[in-house]
Amino acid sequence: MWRSTIDGLRLTFHLAGINNQNFLMRDEETGSYWQQISGRAVSGPMAGRTLTLMPSDELSFKLWKAEEPQGTVVKDVAAYAREYSPENWDVEMAKERTVLSFREHGMKQRDIVMGVQAFGASRAFRYDALLREKLVMDHVGLEPVMLAVGPDGASIRIFRRHISGVDPAPDFYRVDGQEALFIDAATGSGWNFQGCAISGKLQGTCLERVETVKDYWFDWRNYHPDTSIFAGTRAAH
Amino acid sequence: MKTQRPGWFFLLFWLAAGAVAWALLIYPIYVIRPFRYQGPRELPIALAVLRYRPIGMILAVAGMLAAVVWYWRMEHRKWRRFFSAVAVVTVGVAAVLSRVNIYELMFHPAGKPVITAAAESKLDGGEMVIAVKVNGAARAYPIRSMSYHHIYNDVVAGEPIVATY
Fold first, then answer.
1. Residue A206 and residue A170 in contact, taking contact as beta carbons nearer than 8 Å
2. B117 CB near a chain A CB, below 8 Å?
3. Distance (Å, rounded) from C-alpha A74 to C-alpha B44?
4. CB B25 within 8 A of CB B96
5. Residues B84-102: tens digit of each pLDDT
6. Is the pLDDT of residue A32 over 80?
7. How far apart are CA A158 and CA A137, in angstroms?
8. What CA–CA distance (Å, rounded) separates B109 from B107?
9. Residue A196 three-state SS
10. Which residues of B touch A97 (CB under 8 A)?
């Protein structure tokens, strides 16, 4: 998800090719080619420039609608809607072959990861491990972070565990209350999935979100060769 | 210029110009195709071809036109003139096709997004969406549609954005 404007010029993008199974976009206005995953122009007058990332979330419709009742949804394109893949698109894609292969840490090429590039480091969190553990205390570089699965059991958000006046960064525990999803160990305040304290001493405080990209392992690893991996704190059942 | 074998000169020129034009057309399609490994050298070369090939195509077509004019001044037999004209067309076809990016058609561009209110959407609650919030306005892109079209050029609260998946 990117801002389309660069130097005041609004660009219109077209899917124009494939580079190792990540697509290339061509903009109409300058004819430059951009890599979708990095937002970076790889050819043409804009070569070397990078689009500005737009913070985005991958959520279930139910959860998003509850948070944003006034929001708007992009409708299916009627002419093609019948050709859209079923909801288990991920499962079907997992069977497709890849042209790149990084056989490290027991990862399968199409394992899905939540990738974080921040605080001077890159880290890939296995999606299945996050869904299984529901709440994970971890670090990206030296920065304490928390990964939380939403009340729908499908949406995932990542937060910095940085609260001014609370040092060191606290751990959080899952409580599954009506409103609060977790509490922090430092003050016992209750927090919701938006990362805001809704009860206790820290009520009104919100944690800072960390941008993440959901991607296949091979693609994430291709653009982040130094990435570390979070595969779970407990063994898979 | 006076030569004994204008046909041979024309034939050789056609082979050269045709080879250049068709190579410029086919090479990027060959390199940038799905399910193929793109090497670190060949992708930049293919993209450079895409960027600069209009010049190559213009030169190839202009060269063929000049060659056929030159040839017709020496050659008066109808069949030979006819085949030389066909030769020009084979180069022209490559030039015309180079104006079309087959991948831009293959993935069915979505066009301008049509939106509906969250309350009126018929989307299943369990379907995943990509959500953005710009200047207080929230918009969701259903993943089933994103994974088909891959790109939406959109404007949210006055801010042009491109949703990609």
1. no
2. yes
3. 35
4. no
5. 999 999 999 999 999 988 8
6. yes
7. 10
8. 6
9. strand
10. 35
Each residue's pLDDT tens digit, A56-113: 999 999 999 999 999 999 998 888 888 887 666 666 667 777 777 788 878 888 889 9
Q: What is the DSSP string of A90-119?
A: HHHHTTS--S-----TT--TT-EEEEEEET
**In this structure, is the dihedral angle defined by the CA atoms of residues A179, A185, A186 and A188, taken in order, positive or negative?**
positive
Region A197-214: mean pLDDT is: 93
Facing B110 at nearest CB: one of A3, A21, A77 = A77
Best probe of the A interface among B27, B153, B159, B165, by most A CBs < 10 A, is B153
Cα distances (Å, whole numbers) of residue B102 to A53, A209, B106, B153: 28, 39, 6, 20
Min Cα–Cα distance to chain B from A84, Å? 6
Cα separation, A193 vs A156, in Å, equals 9
- CA B89 – CA B1 distance, rounded (Å): 25
Find chain A residues with C-beta within 8 A of B43's C-beta.
19, 42
B164: left (phi over 0), alpha (psi -120 to 50) or beta: beta
- pTM above 0.95? no
Identity at A117, one-letter amino acid code: Q
Interface contact A1-B163, CB threshold 8 A? yes
Shortest alpha-carbon distance between residue B32 and chain A (Å): 5
- In chain A the first and final C-alpha atoms are separated, in Å, by 35
A134 with A39: CB under 8 angstroms? no
Say which of A13, A65, A81 has its CB closest to residue B118.
Answer: A65
Q: What does the angle CA B73 – CA B75 – CA B81 come to, to the nearest 5 degrees?
A: 100
| ipTM confidence | 0.86
Q: Which of residues 53-82 of B touch A (CB under 8 A)?
A: none
- Note whether B122 and A148 are within 8 A (CB): no
C-beta neighbour count of A179 within 10 angstroms = 11
